[in-house]
Amino acid sequence: MPTLNPIPAAAPAPVAPRPGPQKYAVHVAASRIDGQGAFAAEPIPARRKIGEIRGESISVREARRRAKGAARIMIVELSQTRAIDASQSADPLRFTNHSCRPNAVLRIRQGRVEFYAMRDVAIGEELTVNYGETHHEGRLRCRCGAPGCVGRL
To answer: Which pLDDT tens digit goes with each residue over 100-111?
Structure first.
């Protein structure tokens, strides 16, 4: 009787590495809030790090100069003296829009701009954070549409 060679079990498909500092897959698409937005491409559990944005390290003085009169600002102040300008970054989280009822939080840790899920985030859901104080200084109308929206950024 011939010996049968068992068919090896299929190896699990390799998980594609995330681009840059992303822990969960995020893609950029048109946003109902404003322009482009960052959207979950896979389920993201509550309290997990989603990823980071990187960018050009600049002074706060330069950040404020660049922000003057700009409608879309992709700058985060890290400290009293340093800021990150993510306008040229390839990181998809740079498109995270503001919401008065966000599903994520932005944290500055050791000079990094990190995003964490506040609750479970479903595939296709837009990732949002509460910007808090902004370079818009209350001159920009908030478009988040959330109940209890504060109205201005």
So the answer is: 999 999 999 998
Give the integer Cα–Cα distance in Å for 125 and 40: 6
Has residue 66 been placed in a domain? yes
Q: Is there a domain that residue 18 lies in?
A: no
- Asked whether residue 153 is assigned to any structural domain, the reply reads no
Alpha-carbon distance of 66 to 141, in angstroms, equals 20
Q: Where do we find the tokens 């400290």?
A: 79
Residue 78's region, left for phi above 0, alpha for psi from -120 to 50, else beta, is alpha
Q: Which two tokens stand for residue 102?
A: 């966000």
- Total of domains in the chain: 1
pLDDT band at 121 (very low <50, low <70, confident <90, very high): very high
Q: The domain containing residue 39 runs over which residues?
A: 26-129
Query: Tokens for 6?
Result: 């068992």
